[in-house]
Design brief:
This protein has a single domain, classed as Purple Acid Phosphatase, chain A, domain 2 (4-Layer Sandwich). The protein is about 30% helix and about 15% strand. It is built from seven helices and twelve strands. Helix 1 runs parallel beside helix 4. It is globular and about 45 Å long.
Length: about 325
């Protein structure tokens, strides 16, 4: 039985509901992104809440982040549920409610568990592209971020030939450019079931590459640093034949990073292993690309977050600090 009719109706209702709620929150004037070279802080999370343990512990993450009233915004790098749970409308509405409990502006970059893997029987047997359309309508209805206060974002769909890609975003704070790109696990949906996956990948991959290149062109005009946020672990250590859905992205990212010459950070989740390293190897030099840093956020069973300081006096610009949520510590 197709789920399309029901979900289409839900999309309409959800967008109407969101618009109503936003009009009621008229006191939350959208924040604009200031220019300049001052220091600021923000939070990074991803791959949460995951399963029953994540559902129980994610409110502690929200409370811990909300307690830091100096944060400028929060970014979630995708996978708001695990890969074996339902992709139902009810789960999507629950996650929207959780994200809007953050005091800070909240930017969400989607992951594969939200849509590419939803064709699986234990996920509900949905058509992935239908779930993606629902995700876009529910989580990206305007140019405002989520959260109790708002950040105004630039979306790729604004005045672009890539009209449907509302999830691709960017914003600038104090002369640092942030770029959200819809690059997901499960090989970026290339060659995955059902048959609609590869055409979807081809179109989205073209949009991603255009947004990435345009963003670095903007950054080259004087931004101090660039942070790119995706969901997928793109497989730096893998052979190209093992990461076919990411080769175009990695090649473009390397080209743009080297040409830019200033600090670039790639943030992702997916592998559920917190790390900060330098995995990019230049194809010409065969050496490590020194202005590039990869950051993988906490996630899955590790319900903690990263505090990031943008320090204009630091050569690396980004300074990362682990924030272990006391209430979520595991008894050893």
């Amino acid at each position: 039985m197709t789920r399309f009719g029901k979900s289409t109706l839900t999309v309409v209702l959800s967008v109407t509901l969101i618009s109503t709620l936003q009009s009621q929150r008229s006191g939350d004037a959208p924040r604009t992104s200031p220019e300049g070279n001052g220091a600021f802080t923000f939070a990074l999370i991803g791959d949460m809440p995951y399963g029953a343990e994540g559902d129980a512990k994610f409110p502690n993450v929200i409370a811990d982040i909300n307690a830091d009233n100096k944060l400028s915004f929060v970014v979630h790098d995708g996978d708001f549920k695990n890969g074996s749970s339902l992709c139902s409308d009810a789960v999507f509405f629950n996650r929207l409610d959780l994200f809007n409990q953050f005091q800070q502006p909240f930017v969400f970059v989607p992951g594969d568990n939200e849509w590419t893997d939803c064709h699986r029987a234990n996920n509900g047997g949905y058509e992935p592209t239908e779930r993606l359309a629902f995700l876009r309508a529910l989580f990206f209805p305007t140019n405002d971020s989520l959260g109790r206060t708002h950040l105004t974002l630039e979306r790729q769909s604004d005045g672009s030939p890539y009209q449907i890609y509302r999830e691709n975003v960017r914003w600038t704070v104090h002369n640092v450019l942030f770029v959200g790109l819809h690059v997901v696990g499960s090989n970026n949906n290339l060659g995955q079931p059902p048959a609609s996956s590869t055409p979807e990948y081809v179109a989205r991959n073209a949009a991603n590459l255009a947004w990435l290149r345009e963003s670095f062109a903007i950054a080259s005009l004087g931004h101090k640093a660039v942070m790119v946020i995706i969901q997928a672990d793109p497989g730096f250590e893998l052979a190209p034949a093992q990461r076919t859905g990411f080769n175009d992205f990695l090649a473009a990212l390397q080209t743009e990073t080297i040409a830019y010459g200033r600090p670039v950070a790639l943030v992702h989740g997916d592998s559920h292993y917190f790390r900060i390293d330098k995995p990019m190897i230049g194809t010409k030099s065969g050496r490590r690309v020194e202005n590039f840093t990869r950051v993988e956020t906490f996630g899955e069973l590790d319900n903690h977050w990263l505090h990031v300081t943008v320090d204009p006096t630091s050569r690396n610009v980004f300074v990362f600090d682990q924030r272990i949520v006391t209430a979520n510590l595991i008894a050893q």
